[in-house]
Design goal:
The complex is a heterodimer of chains A (439) and B (345). Chain A is mostly helical. Chain A has 15 helices and 6 strands. Chain A has helices at 3-42, 45-79, 81-114, 121-150, 170-173, 177-205, 211-245, 247-254, 286-292, 313-342, 349-358, 361-375, 388-391, 398-423, 431-438; strands at 155-157, 163-166, 265-271, 277-283, 380-382, 386-387. In chain A, a hairpin with a 3-residue loop joins strand 5 (380-382) and strand 6. The longest helix of chain A has 40 residues, at 3-42. In chain B, helix 6 packs across helix 7, helix 8 (197-228) packs across helix 9 (230-238) and helix 9 (230-238) crosses helix 11 (264-286). The termini of chain B are far apart. The chains are: A mainly alpha (439), B mainly alpha (345). At the A-B interface, helix 2, helix 3, strand 2 and helix 14 of A face helix 3, helix 4, helix 5 and helix 13 of B.
Amino acid sequence: MDVLTAARLQMEVSLGFHMFFAALGIGMPLLMLIAEWRWLRTGREHYRDLAKTWGKATALTFAVGAVSGTALAFELGLLWPSFMALAGGVIGPAFALEGYAFFIEAIFLGLYLYGWDRLSPRAHWWTGVPVAVSGMMSGVLVLAANAWMQAPGGFELAADGTLAGSDPLAPFRSPAWLHMALHSTLSCYIATGFAVAGVYAAGMLRGRRNAYHRAALGIALAVGGVTAVLQPLSGDWSAREVAKYQPAKLAAAEAHFETSSHVPLMIGGIPDEDGNVRFALHIPNALSIMVGRSPETVITGLNDFPRDERPPVAITHIAFQIMVAAGFAMIFVALWFGWARWRRRPEDRVLLAMVLAASPLGFIALQAGWIVSEVGRQPWVIYGIMRTSDGVTPQAGVPATLFGFTVLYLFLGVALVALLRGLTHYSGPTATEEDAHAA
Amino acid sequence: MQPELLVAGLGIVALVTYAVLGGADFGGGIWDLFATGPRRDAQRDAIAHAMGPVWEANHVWLIFVIVIIFSAFPAAYAALSIALFVPFHLVLLGIILRGAAFVFRAYSPQSARGAGSGPAGRRWGAVFGTASVITPVLLGMCLGAVSSGGIRVDEGGVSFAGGVPAWLEPLSLFMGALALSLCAYLAAVFLANETDGDLREDFRTRALLAGTAVVALSAILLPLVRRDAPHLWTGLTAGAATPILVPGVIAALLSGWWLRQRRYRLARASAVVQIACLLAGWALAQSPYIIYPGLTLEQAAAPRSTLLFILWTTPAGMALLIPSLWYLFRVFKGEHLALTESARD
């Protein structure tokens, strides 16, 4: 394996692993705050038990997220030293601000987790608020660095290719920032909400139909469902922005080769690099209408780009299809669940099975979306400025470190899933106790 | 004053804070691994109790150091990433395993004696302890490599002087050992402050042991620095660093003396001063180089606008951080302060 491929894979493994925990670190604090708020309002203990269990899950996932995030800060340099030599000074401000947000999150998480017996209930709830807010903010801020790589600006290069000057707000002025931040933040809530809902749907399918499980399912799907329904709006915004500043990425995501108007939207299909797409459904004019609100809209195709400036089409297109399909499947489940709750129907087995089946979809969509974003930027690490192959380390040992990190992360992932399963063994008060309490 | 010097100063402040707080957490892991005697379990509980609420926040100081280096001195970050490719990867392995194992143990299925004491918990405890030993050694070795002059940065790229990896030179190896014993010393002094009775005596003995190791290693390192890194020797003994190092040495000796006298709070305060003086003195001795002899702070610095951004955002960031940290330490460490105070009255 050559160093470039190994370095890209190590980055993918490290980012992909970190992303699970980053998303949970954004989503879980919101869930635990809602549960604890319900406890403060109603005094019903299953809400407090839920907040405690979710707090423990947050502690486990936050710790792994923090250390794997540290690894990423190092790996940016270890794998891509020339990239960091050029870009470090430009994207640094995004990381510096993210650092503060992350710091606040770590401080208040310590207070929240260990403060149950030391703080008044109200003060305790308030220590969770900075965790949720700064967790979200650290995601939003660090995305500015990635946005700058997608749509760079605000810097000058010297004659020798080094950085001569830069606008410290360059990452935040990238046109990619806001729509990416919105899309990605929503996806974190969706992924967390659906993953958590699956755990409790499974419990209810095994007969644990008590207030604890119903409350957990309701909170998780309220967060995951509402954000899932909103996500297509943000996706639409993203697609139109990407059409403006990264036409090759949109073209690859849609497997669109010939520049034209009246471009159909392609559903499914397996493209090759020569412009043939097999097994695809076409919705006439739909892509043109999506991007420009008119079938006359001209959309640039991949054939307008030299071969060595095109992203890999098949990976980008298939990942994009997976993301969209998973997104719509979750919307369907969310609407069904909302309808059942609205009609005050007890969750039937079919609905619970659907929730369980949908539980990994949020994370699948999240990972697929990042593949679209990152693979779709190739062959550039800084779009139009620096090729990924020019940013990679001269160190020959990358295949070995790739192997090491993959094994390490697999091992930690398995261990963590086992521990999280242990947390769910607590099944809440039995139904009779709960009924007595409610009465 | 040039902005790159101010940012470098900021980086040193963050590094000192990490060394004191994060270093003590590594030391906690060391003493967890080497917990012995009749109070073995109580020692481990005291360590977990002391670290639990604060170790995540303490760890963030390392991220600050890294972000400052790659934002403000990107050329140095790139060169270090190439030269220290192997030890940095090993550091990451240590950091990941240490943090993950600590929480995994805390949330492992419980036995009768409490959280993390079941068989799975004991295994994670061993991982936590081992990773806590390895990581500070490697970080010390990296620090040694940076100042030894063994990393060469020039037109041809990054290489090692003489072909031997600078982090494996004797100077770096002894720096690693020194870092390990300093972490162990700090942790034992802190833990002696946060415990009572026999447990406190356990940690006092451990602190005296680690302190002896610190003195012995320093005695070996001094001639080694003089032989292998004469530029650093000059900086330490005849340069701007001397006025800082002398109080550092005095603080180190006082810390040990007060520990012997069971004046724990004084021992702790002087241990913190010792670490701060050591690191600040080291930084001054190698200034203006960030990697000796190829790269100065000025050569490695990012554009002025980025440096100014880091400087200008610091007061705002600290205005958020310092009250939050104060609250964290007051809620979880305040009780011990009150206890030790009332014990003395």
